[in-house]
Amino acid sequence: MNQSRWIDSWKSLDAGSLRRENPGMQNEKTGPVHLHRIDAGQNMRRFYMLAIQPTLFGGACVIRNWGRIGSSGQTMMETFDSQEDANTVLRRLEGTKRKRGYRDTRRGE
């Protein structure tokens, strides 16, 4: 058990500390993107999720998760040296999926 009264919160891994430790990671807020494509005529019920996570070495990672709605799907992670590069790739992937018919997921689906 930690007997110390003092807590080095600036060293913790919570979201608030990441903003204090590396303010460059927050220049462009890019939240997770949840998309789906449903076509009952083709028995198609797909989802696609994109998110950016910081890496331990100051870079950023684009996480993609896709598959049939109701399954855990497949996951792929791609690491970048900067947050800006990750944001660019996320926006490009999102645009590609939207052109293929994916739409925003409504709450409750």
From TrEMBL:
WGR domain segment(s): 30-109
Domain of life: Bacteria
Region Disordered: start-end pairs: 81-109
SMART domains: WGR
A Pfam family the protein falls into: WGR
Compositionally skewed regions (Basic and acidic residues) per UniProt: 91-109
Protein name stated in the entry: WGR domain-containing protein
Phylogenetic lineage: Bacteria, Pseudomonadati, Pseudomonadota, Alphaproteobacteria, Hyphomicrobiales
